[in-house]
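User: Can you recover a sequence for this backbone? Please restate the input before giving your answer.

Assistant: Of course. Working from this structure:
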């Protein structure tokens, strides 16, 4: 059971919820704060104070006063009118995490909702009722208004959900799980949709997959190095400590750990004086992407525990302040950075693929084919990898540099962070396929060597990968192998296989 406090949710806990289906509950102290902020909202309504979103309209209509008897209608109209999302829905685990993050934000006690709103959100999580939320339609600056409105619809018994593997109307799922739909009162609709939980949930899921793939890139690169009889001198700790980037030093140490005991790698001058950059500069390139991942992780863990709606209620209602915490710029920049970092893992991987398939760059059979000429072997697998990395370059164009004014120019700068998060996730998906192709090619290259000469750690990975896609003896429909290897790399249960080495070995290194 994961206890939500509004302040302490971690990426590891998010992973346990969306991957391990762990149950969630609200901290009672945090719920007391929720009650206090709710009492403040009720006083504001009773006294007829003019406070944005509580007794006024929204956006450009913030100057329109709303009478107390219309507050419920105002909130219902808000949710329905803002549910304009289009396109394919977010993955179920993203939508589930949106519920968790929205509940966690409300538990900070600055939003003025009733405890019942938080409780209903958590009931949906624990009953595995997942809102169907279209991916497109958010500007990422008055919060993720459109996606979160589709989430909020479910709380009132409208919209659609996934429940027990079926797509159904929300009310049918609520009835099945004995969950009473809400009638939203003052500020509650606004508190549910003013926030960055769509971009953050997509960002968290993207980051978790990115981190797993980043670990796998090192093992795959190590296998490629053995397939190409690569030189290990460039991974000497002295080189990396001389530059000073911890992540670069760590990558080099992990590669050497993976290759310890290999009789296929070489030293400078043995086969050649030095390797191409896609081999020699693995620590520098991979290390830089790990730096970016560290930045992204930090920003996500802050945003997961942030109050992002508007207005916010402080000092038990003595201060109600309209601000802009719903603006997604911190996550927009982080998502653009994540996409760029993961695109680079794929870029350098594709170059290593080229070094394995190009007969002018190695001593292996042309295109790794058992019968070059009559058969094309891995020739077109490299084409596929090249197409994927090219697509990634267009997806990596920063979404955060764009802005289109909305709400009659009241909301005149927006983040486009949700677009950035979606693009980052697509880049990660593409990158995994590129790495799958590299793994297939590395396994094939090693099949022409002597697998007995592999390092013990890489041999274990080679054997497991060979069970998924054995070395090919003739041309075949390689698309099937690529997708099979891609699915294998996406399997979260592989964590132990790709963690045969310590996460940071550099502390033991001396010049």
């Amino acid at each position: 059971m994961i206890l939500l406090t509004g302040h302490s949710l971690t990426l590891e806990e998010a992973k346990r919820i969306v991957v391990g289906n762990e149950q969630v509950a609200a901290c009672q102290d945090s719920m007391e704060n929720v009650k206090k902020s709710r009492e403040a909202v009720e006083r504001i309504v009773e006294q007829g104070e003019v406070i944005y979103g509580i007794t006024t309209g929204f956006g450009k209509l913030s100057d329109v006063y709303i009478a107390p008897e219309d507050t419920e209608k105002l909130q219902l109209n808000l949710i329905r009118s803002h549910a304009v999302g289009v396109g394919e829905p977010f993955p179920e685990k993203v939508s589930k995490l949106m519920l968790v993050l929205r509940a966690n934000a409300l538990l900070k006690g600055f939003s003025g909702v009733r405890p019942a709103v938080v409780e209903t959100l958590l009931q949906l999580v624990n009953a595995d009722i997942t809102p169907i939320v279209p991916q497109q339609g958010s500007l990422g600056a008055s919060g993720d208004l459109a996606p979160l409105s589709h989430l909020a619809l479910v709380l009132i018994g409208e919209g659609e959900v996934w429940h027990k593997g079926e797509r159904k109307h929300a009310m049918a799922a609520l009835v099945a799980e004995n969950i009473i739909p809400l009638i939203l009162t003052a500020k509650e609709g606004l508190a549910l949709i003013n926030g960055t939980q769509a971009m953050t949930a997509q960002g968290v899921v993207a980051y978790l997959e990115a981190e797993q793939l980043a670990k796998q890139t090192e093992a795959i690169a190590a296998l490629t190095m053995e397939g190409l009889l690569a030189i290990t001198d460039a991974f000497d700790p002295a080189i990396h400590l001389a530059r000073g980037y911890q992540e670069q030093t760590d990558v080099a140490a992990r590669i050497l750990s993976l290759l310890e005991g290999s009789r296929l790698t070489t030293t400078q001058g043995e086969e050649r004086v030095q390797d191409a950059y896609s081999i020699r500069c693995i620590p520098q390139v991979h290390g830089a992407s790990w730096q970016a991942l560290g930045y992204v992780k930090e920003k996500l863990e802050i945003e997961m525990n942030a109050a992002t709606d508007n207005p916010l209620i402080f000092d038990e209602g003595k201060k109600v302040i309209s601000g802009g915490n719903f603006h997604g710029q911190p996550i927009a920049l982080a998502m653009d950075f994540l996409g760029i970092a993961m695109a680079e893992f794929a870029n350098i991987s594709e170059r290593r693929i080229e070094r394995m398939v190009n007969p002018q760059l190695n001593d292996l059979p042309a295109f790794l084919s058992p019968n070059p000429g009559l058969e094309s072997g891995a020739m077109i697998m490299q084409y596929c990898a090249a197409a994927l990395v090219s697509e990634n370059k267009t997806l990596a164009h920063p979404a955060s540099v764009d802005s289109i004014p909305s709400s009659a120019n009241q909301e005149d700068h927006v983040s486009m962070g949700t677009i950035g998060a979606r693009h980052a996730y697509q880049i990660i998906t593409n990158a995994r396929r590129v790495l799958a192709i590299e793994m297939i090619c590395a396994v094939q290259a090693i099949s022409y060597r002597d697998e007995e000469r592999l390092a013990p750690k890489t041999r274990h990975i080679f054997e497991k990968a060979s069970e998924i896609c054995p070395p090919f003896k003739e041309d075949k429909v390689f698309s099937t192998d690529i997708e099979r290897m891609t699915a294998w790399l996406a399997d979260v249960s592989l964590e132990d296989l790709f963690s045969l080495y310590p996460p940071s070995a550099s502390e033991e290194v001396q010049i």
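That completes the design. The chain has two domains: 2-195, 204-401+417-508.
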